[in-house]
Amino acid sequence: MEHDLDCLTIAELEKLATQRMDRQTRDYYNEGADSGTTVRENESAYQKYRLRPRVLRNVSKVDSSVNVFGTRCSVPFGVAPAAMQKLAHEEGELATAHACQEKGVVMGLSSFSTTALEDVRAASGNTPNVLQLYLFEDREQSRKLIERAKKVGYSAVVLTVDTPLLGRRNLEIRNQFRLPGHLRAANFDLDNDGRGSRSSRSERSDTAFSKDHSAAAKSTAANYREGRRVLPTGPVTFHTHGPNPTLEWDECIPWLKAQASPMQVWVKGIMTAEDAALAVGHHVDGIIVSNHGGRQLDGTLATLDALPEIVAAVNHRIPVHIDGGIRHGTDIFKALALGADFCWIGRPMLWGLAYKGQAGVELCLRLLTDEFQLCMGLAGVARVADIGPQFLYRVKASEFLSRL
């Protein structure tokens, strides 16, 4: 295997990508909400654990593959849905899809992608795709996306549930973030069957993206405090249509399951045992422990810290996935040891995309795969199913190590 000697770690990939992105793109991808505490703690939480390896075990054949979304995939992690990837590279989501297909890795697609969901599915070959979904107040917009995803063979829809309002992202406000004129939210200016071309709706989208999103969020909240229910109007953008404070378990999950069948329905944004139990009770197919990459509620737990109580509440009844802060193959091992079934990688993929397009995403996936497989072997584990809490110590505040 030939190494990229300029980039041997995800940390180096971040530095290289930062040099290639303009300020608006860099801040959009890397920033968290408010003071950024949760962004930092998502990453630092993994340092609370140390590995406890076993020796004299046959690891001549390390098998890192897992079954996910009905398919055998090469590694227990996938590429998380991330919006507007053409900000990072001109090929955007297509480059990511080709990289995932090459490496046998699941790809999640954001509803607010800059490439149509049909084109991403076509580029993905036999590797699974899942569609990240918001349930808009204009439910027909969501229904159309679901039907299109179903038609072309997406394996699941993943409902994001941590955006009743939009988190305060100060750099987006300061930069007056807007989607450049040559880009578009591709899933919202196509005909219902996925064909079509750029429309007058998307030509107007730059204006919507340039609005102060905190002002939009305040306006939405005020509408509901005062008992008004005013549907968003104009072009569909995340800032104007993504937040939806009206959603409730008993209404939205049955509706989504009825619309999405036979695709799986997952919920992304679970951070407590109580909500994990509700997800199980509403018969979703799986959950993702996520705090939106620290971009929504600052000061919430790191996802790794929230994971154990959620795993206990679910008690093997449905799969539990996790995202946030993963920068090393050993991080993936630690998350699995704490009970996660699968991990999702967000920002590192975007850094790879900004660095070298498809080749950069492949580099990101290769680095994490190599590190994870090496960790398995050195820890004395030949199969992913054998990874468990017996392979971890937790570092206590006193700096002593404690068996789990």
TrEMBL record:
GO cellular-component term (any): cytoplasm
Annotated binding of FMN, by residue: 81-83, 110, 160, 268, 290, 323-327, 346-347
Span of domain FMN hydroxy acid dehydrogenase: 2-397
Keyword Nuclease (UniProt): no
Any matching Pfam family: FMN_dh
Binding positions for glyoxylate per the UniProt entry: 28, 132, 134, 169, 292, 295
Domain of life: Eukaryota
Protein name: Oxidase FUB9
GO molecular-function terms, A-Z: FMN binding; oxidoreductase activity
Keywords, sorted A to Z: Flavoprotein, FMN, Oxidoreductase
Cofactor: FMN
Positions of the catalytic residues: 292
InterPro entries referenced in this protein's UniProt entry, alphabetically: Aldolase_TIM, Alpha-hydoxy_acid_DH_FMN, FMN-dep_DH, FMN_HAD, FMN_hydac_DH_AS
Composition-biased stretches (Basic and acidic residues): 192-215
Region Disordered: start-end pairs: 188-243
